[in-house]
Design brief:
The chain has 297 residues and is an alpha+beta fold. The protein contains 8 helices and 14 strands. This is SET domain-containing protein.
């Protein structure tokens, strides 16, 4: 009896590409539907943390995990070192690191530029992880994808889903922090942790806003989002991100999460249910006023 032939795995939906001014990036290999899973990634490096942990304690946990990786899998350790590193912090020669100061500084810089925080069921940071592929996602203040992780289910794997249609060849980006952060807060974090200033369309608009306009955006109340939706319908170019806020930003108080459609069905039908990547809320598309909240039990 002939052995059943196994079909080859489907081609990846994203691939690494060098883009001018962006460095190594991830671009779509074909048209991507809303909610499609772009990749699922397992951590290259994982180390524990806690809300009470100091920077020094987190750094020590990182270096212990990196040292263990260097012994158990030298190839994975070299892959870790090959990831982009932002500003290199100063390291004292008297540091208790198992690595020389220069290598310690590189590891800290790689961690600062690439680590994803993992939260427990109470949304408290419980660990940090560095992923071999997800680390290539660049930042955008209006991303076209968002990440989901479920460490409370016993897994540190990360999944990235598309927010909306993405044409082939388009760069796929995440936001490195909650989308509803204000302009000044976003720019300060990007400059401090990643060494660059963002000049996306949203930032160019918000750079000219007054402080009270920025504070209104950060509050993100229903009234403010309704006003933005009205501006969008009127075609006001001063609010290029109004529709994004109405559709994709979770309206649960103090959440700050991003809503992405559930994965399409097996026949390719796009889901009309969106899931928050922070609080897990489910919402029917078109129910942005909050009346269509679904039971996510």
């Amino acid at each position: 009896m002939a052995a059943a032939s196994s079909s080859p795995p489907p081609p990846p939906l994203v691939q690494v590409a060098d883009l001018p001014g962006r460095g190594r990036s991830l671009i779509a290999t074909r048209h991507i539907k809303p909610g499609e899973i772009l990749l699922s990634d397992s951590p290259l490096l994982l180390y524990p943390s806690s809300p009470a942990a100091s920077d020094a304690e987190d750094h020590a946990a990182l270096l212990r995990a990196a040292h263990s990786l260097s012994l158990s899998s030298p190839s994975s350790f070299h892959q870790l070192l090959s990831l982009h590193a932002g500003p290199t912090p100063p390291v004292s020669s008297s540091s208790s690191s198992p690595f020389p100061p220069s290598l310690t500084a590189t590891l800290l810089a790689v961690d600062r530029s690439n680590a994803f925080a993992l939260a427990d069921a109470r949304r408290r940071v419980s660990a940090y992880a560095i992923y071999p592929l997800a680390s290539f996602f660049n930042h955008d203040c209006l991303p076209n994808a968002c990440r989901f992780d479920y460490p409370d289910r016993g897994s540190a794997d990360l999944t990235v889903r598309a927010l909306h249609d993405i044409p082939p060849g388009r760069e796929v980006c995440l936001s490195y922090f909650p989308v509803n952060w204000g302009y000044k807060e976003r720019q300060a974090r990007l400059l401090e942790d990643y060494g660059f200033r963002c000049e996306c369309d949203r930032c160019r608009v918000e750079a000219n806003w007054k402080d009270d306009e920025e504070n209104m955006e950060e509050d993100g109340g229903d009234e403010g989002m309704a006003e933005e939706e009205e501006e969008e319908e009127e075609g006001d170019g001063d609010f290029p991100h109004a529709y994004f806020f109405v559709k994709f930003v979770c309206d649960v108080e103090n959440c700050g999460g991003t809503l992405a459609p559930l994965p399409p069905s097996d026949d390719g039908t796009v889901s009309d249910v969106l899931e928050c990547n922070v609080c897990g809320k489910l919402r029917k598309e078109g129910d942005e006023d909050g009346d269509g909240e679904m039971d996510d039990d």
